[in-house]
What does this fold into?
Amino acid sequence: MRLHEYQAKQVFADAGIPTPSSEVVETADAAREAAERIGGTVAVKAQVHVGGRGKAGGIELADDADEAHEAAEGILGMDLKGKHVEKVLVEEAVDFVDELYVGVTTDRGEGRAVAMVSSEGGVNIEEVAEENPDAIARTHVDPAYDLRPFEAREVVYGANVDRETARDVTGVLSTLYELWDERDADDAEINPLMVTEDGGVVAADAVFNIDDSALYRQEELAEMEDEAFEDDFEARASDAGFDYVRLDGNVGIIGNGAGLVMTTLDLVDHFGGSPANFLDIGGGADAERVQAALELVFEYENVDSVLFNVFGGITRCDEVAQGINDALEAFDELPEPLVVRLTGTNEEEGRELLTDRVETAEGLEEAVKRTVELSGGDGE
Amino acid sequence: MSVLVGDETRLVVQGITGSEGKFHAERMQEYGTNVVAGVTPGRGGDEVLGVPVYDTVKEAVREEDANASAVFVPPAFAGDAVMESLDADIELCVAITEGIPTHDMVRVNRRLDEVDTRLVGPNCPGVITPGEAKIGIMPGNIFDSGNVGLVSRSGTLTYQLVDSLGRRGVGQSTVIGIGGDPIIGTSFIDSVRAFENDEDTDVIALVGEIGGSDEERAAEWIDENVTKPVVGFIAGRTAPPGKRMGHAGAIVSGSGTGTAESKMEALRDAGVRVAETPAGVADEIDDLL
It folds into this structure.
């Protein structure tokens, strides 16, 4: 789960990290009032989960309250890389002499946290990591000891942070690690951490992503969840308990198991088609789930044909076939052709059970080719 | 010889009184796995499926000589259940549970450095040596005994490949599902090493997917250490960046790391035959045998 910038800043500020004064608002009028209270130049920043907000036009500087009103009017309601902007953060613009990167993230390869500092802040840190990895100082944290103070110092000095600022940056890094540790974070990052003329530091942006699997024990953070779904489809899929991703193509895909569904998408592409979605129906394909999945996939106007690809393991193919038949009763007429491919335990019984309202196929490749043909592709 | 599981396996099922644990314990018994005990705290003294239930894993080890464990415990408690197995000197722990918090796995991963236990998973289908034993949830009937060692991050995709092999009359020495989570115990490298050293394995199949860099690391290791032929497959070529494709670990980051292309290229550079389709994997293997 991703927190919005304003939420992450609140959590960071509560933990003692300096942040600029700011207010989150939902109307242009409120933005004007906020700018008046804050005074001076402010930044008006879209609160959506999108990388590169600035370049996409989601951040504007305003010299006074009227400009803040104008900026908020432009940003509120806009679609930023597919995400609708409903809130903006009006924030004191900070005069800075330097920009740093400070972050703690989970390094999956090492299976532990990595604490990082770079003096090249304010730019895409992933690009820095690729082009100039030496510009990022880092240490992996042994969870048995947590981030020890000397390790934090080593990283800060390793990044060539100015001596006057080093103590503050060390404090910020240690706090970020504590937040990562206590709040089940995947990432706790500040980019940029601005260095002010008097040598102080201020978090000008904030990223705080929480492990979804741990939300049950992070109630305070779970309540902040405000994930704007890209569309109604993803919201409904989430309610139904499906893993669903909408894509640009016209071949609808339903399957069980992430790896198999990904492979089905790849095969559609391989045989000249274009996938319309990823939908993992998960374990157990009873009529209710099958019906919900079919409705969701058919409803997307792009879809010209649908492939239902299930490998029956513990769930037997005849049970799945029965689920499909029952689900089809909810449709007077199928909006687009449906190809069903069942493999695994009791596959022949399953295929025999299926009504003639669907096409069946035995092999995976055969099923994909046929569905691509039905979508208007050549299936080659 | 078999890899990880076999006739010598004496399995304790953690969470045997739960519906999942009980269901799969019975399937494992049917397949021929020697299930010697179950563990559910508070249910010690009961009997389930003809085996005794203990309150702790240590009791199961002491009383029944258990040397392997399968974890079917709900996610909030599964990290602790794995820790309990590690502390009881279990040789092989297979964690089936999906949704264990990452930070719990960070601590488990740290503890693994200090003990001799091999952990497979979590969020995995398990391990099977066809015709001998299985620890996990895979449907045993689709597997045939043979000489292909297969390691995979995915469940149903593994079944699909095993099915494709079966249709060509090709069986498996051992199949290891290492799991789709960001932090897992047994890696591709551990699995490939076991297959390289297994006299019953002639061809190794590595089935990866987008996200992380385990496949790239494995490619490097294969290049330097493996003499047996390896066939590779990577799922997720069409996955858009930034979107999680079902598995917690299956995501291409914004900067393009963890892509299918980088993994396929790394494997090809290491001399692995990379196929584009599941049928292609089976064809390559058939061709090598």
About this structure: The mean pLDDT of chain A is 92. Chain A touches chain B through 55 residues (CB under 8 Å). Residues 163-182 of chain A form the longest helix (20 residues). The first strand of chain A starts at residue 22 and ends at 25.
